Amino acid sequence: MKLLTPLLICLLLHPASGADSLRGFPDEEARSRQPFEQRLRATAEANKIREFMFRMAAEPHHAGSPGSRAVAEYALARFREFGLDARIETFHALIPYPTQRSLELLSPVRYTAKLREPVVKDDPDSSDQNQLPTFNAYSGNGEVTAPLLYANYGLPEDYALLRQKNIDPRGKIVLVRYGRSFRGIKAKVAAENGAVACLIYSDPRDDGYFQGDIYPKGPFRPAPGVQRGSVMDLPLHPGDPLTPNKPSTLNAQRLRLDDARTVHKIPVLPISWEDARPLLDNLDGELAPLEWRGAVPVTYHLGPGPALVHLKLQHDNAIRPIHNVVARLRGSTFPDQIVLYGNHHDAWVNGAADPISGAASVLEAARILAKAAQQGWRPKRSLVFALWDAEEYGLVGSTEWAEQHRDRLQREAVAYFNSDTTLRGPMSIQSTPSLEKFIEEWLRDTPEPAGPRSLLELTNRKSFHTAPLGSGSDYTAFAHHLGIASLNAGFDGNMAGVYHSVYDSLRWFQYFGDPDYVYTTAFAGFMATGLARMADAYVIPFDFSRVARFLKENVEDLKKLPKSRSLPWELLEREIEKLDLTARAWGAAIRPLYPRFPSLDKAKLQKLNEALYLTERSLTRPEGLPGRDWYKGLLSAPGKYTGYGAKTLPGIREALETQRIEEAAQQLRLLTDTLAAYSDRIRAATALAREF
Ligand SMILES: [Zn+2]
Predict the structure, then answer these.
(1) Any idea where the domains of the chain sit in the sequence?
(2) Under a CB-based contact definition with an 8 Å cutoff, are residues 236 and 628 in contact?
């Protein structure tokens, strides 16, 4: 027996306390991992992050452009230089560019909208060639002249209020402001209410001078700043609108554009508040309710009219190549079990913050782990690093890739890690509930970027929860379509003022995003340690009790909704109770094996792990959610009318919210059956554990 220092003995006597216990590792190894993880974190270099960011955010690189291809080639070269097995995987998707944009106020006064973001003298990138003009991807083509109507954030309840006031949106061009819902939902709701076009502007109350100094003096949106962005109907399905459920390979069968469900028929255009001002100023009729007023210096009226607006939009609706970059570090023990980490590389313009801060973190995490591999460490499972293209258009690169590799991913994927923009700010993580305990330990063992506390201490909560996954980044296909345990992480700073504009530049990032790359560098180290844990755990560190807790809390929440009384909740609650017992039985079976992990039979361990990560697949249904069969997971999904925001237990919740009681009852039974199958799988894994 080795000699133990008193400190170590003390630690051994309390194996479950403090940072020593780690799900999936024997206690002794949990301790020896700490210096290893510290080394990984210390390997992350601000200089590297800076270099990656400068190379990838130097020029505009929107999906389908030569700039995007160049960024993909650059990342490919870096992955190979790190010693990883890397390649570019190309798809061919509907990636429209605008060909004609004009917006005029015809009367009572004439105004021609500028529709462009001017050069800022201090920011050389703002004058780059090949910037994509301001537009909304997947808008309809068309030319309309109609009276203007102001509809606040363009939410369903905003139109309800207009109708209450006998104001009819039919035949009008609606002007709505960004915020409170995904822009694609604003376009959808406008069309459903009979509007002939939708203009979306950035109100300075939400992200402009009202919030703080504007760029270049401060981080907030200048008057001519515009938020580009996709208006794809993402809650129906993300990815190429012409190849739902299938990969958009070169010769794929495609829908006709007219039949694509996620593309709009009405023209939709984003504008600055500078361009919105004369429009708002020429509305008459009733005063806008107090909460509808923003900070454009005019008196907000609802209209409609007298402002008469002419809008003409054309997009080329071309199929363009998009390039995902995928790199692999082969696992030593379970090479056919894979842990993935992805971030998109395409931007609307230069995108220093969105997405290059996160893309640089992928490169740096890959570099750190590849270097550790050269120094003798080898992940037990294979690690896959991905930089996705065309995320901005609607998660296109990741979705097509997930659809292309569906079978293999469903067989082999243990977990998917995602990031996007990461900035100076607090850590923010969303995840599937099975990963919550793993994340809690990971935060517990990670120091904050510039201070003495752990990231977990900073969450400042008695009972740790991760938020559920909605949509808005590349985890969507993995979590909601394939049923892979997923998480999305990032240091969460405020970039609202330059979001999707030419001013999301290296200069903005250095002044306001993450000066000195402190958080970005820490983030790369953080992701590297989490990936290494997930790849190295002898037994995959899912916690099924947290799934049961998630379900209990959400059922309690659903029961507060009107009309929920008539549903047979007891059925579901009994199944959740059973799941909780099953989860405890799993814990009781695996815990005694912890000290023996290193000596367990590899083949049997592989089988046990397979059984474990496949439990996540059984939380999906092949028929998917009502009216949107691409979304197969039953625990959470983006809301049909919120977009990015997550709806938990969406089948039941959305039926209840729209008073479809029959459907809610049916969804409740479906969830009950699904949980029964899930528990069965956990019991099967428990039986395997008892065989050791
Ligand atoms: Zn992004």
Answers:
(1) 11-94+320-536, 98-317, 544-690
(2) yes
pLDDT at 460 over 80: no
Q: 504 C-alpha vs ligand 1 centroid, how far in Å?
A: 11
Convert the pLDDT of each residue in 74-90 to its tens digit. Answer: 999 999 999 999 999 99
The pLDDT value given to residue 14: 35
Q: Pick from 359, 288, 369: which is nearest to 324 by CA?
A: 359
CA–centroid distance, 680 to ligand 1, in Å, is: 38
Q: How far is the CA of 399 from the centre of ligand 1 (A)?
A: 15
Q: Is residue 585 predicted with pLDDT exceeding 80?
A: yes
Please give the distance, rounded to the nearest whole angstrom, from the Cα atom of residue 71 to the centre of ligand 1: 15
CATH T-level fold of 98-317: Glucose Oxidase; domain 1 (3.50.30)
Residue among 86, 107, 675 nearest 387 (CA): 86
pLDDT score at 20: 64
pLDDT at res. 461:
73
C-alpha 11 to ligand 1 mean position (Å)? 43
What's the pLDDT band for 5 if we cut at 50, 70, 90? very low
Q: How far is the CA of 355 from the centre of ligand 1 (A)?
A: 5
Q: Residue 339 C-alpha to ligand 1 middle, in angstroms?
A: 21
Instruction: Locate 171 and state its tokens.
Output: 């035949």
For domain 544-690, the CATH superfamily is Transferrin receptor-like, dimerisation domain (1.20.930.40)
Ligand 1 centroid to Cα of residue 341, in Å, is: 15
Cβ count near 51 (within 10 Å): 15
Superfamily name with CATH number, domain 11-94+320-536: Zn peptidases (3.40.630.10)
Ligand 1 centroid vs 35 CA: distance in angstroms?
Answer: 33
Q: Which residues pair with 328 in a beta bridge?
A: 85, 384
**Phi, psi dihedral angles at 436 (to 5 degrees):** -60, -45
Distance CA 507, CA 216 (A): 9
CA angle, 16 then 20 then 25, to 5° = 90
Q: Is the pLDDT of residue 559 over 60?
A: yes
Distance 349 CA to ligand 1 centre (A): 12
Rounded Cα distance between 425 and 612, Å, is 34
How many angstroms does the Cα of residue 418 sit away from the middle of ligand 1?
11
Alpha helix ranges (H) inside 87-203: 156-164, 183-192
Quick one: three-class SS letters along 537-590? CCCCCCCHHHHHHHHHHHHHHHCCCCCHHHCCHHHHHHHHHHHHHHHHHHHHHH
| Triad 630, 639, 677: Cα angle to 5° | 55
How far, in Å, is the centroid of ligand 1 from the Cα of 177?
21
Paired tokens of 528: 């590297």
Question: What does the alpha-carbon distance between residue 151 and residue 225 come to, in Å, rounded to a whole number?
Answer: 21
Q: Ligand 1: distance of its center to the CA of 420 in Å?
A: 5
Q: What is the pTM of this model?
A: 0.96
Q: How far is the CA of 357 from the centre of ligand 1 (A)?
A: 9
Q: How far is the CA of 344 from the centre of ligand 1 (A)?
A: 7
Q: Percentage of residues in the chain with pLDDT exceeding 90?
A: 94
Q: Are 331 and 180 in contact (CB under 8 A)?
A: no
CA 422 – ligand 1 centroid, Å: 10
How far does residue 46's CA lie from ligand 1's centre (Å)? 21
CA 96 – ligand 1 centroid, Å: 18
Distance 354 CA to ligand 1 centre (A): 5
Tell how far the Cα of 238 is from the centroid of ligand 1, in angstroms.
14
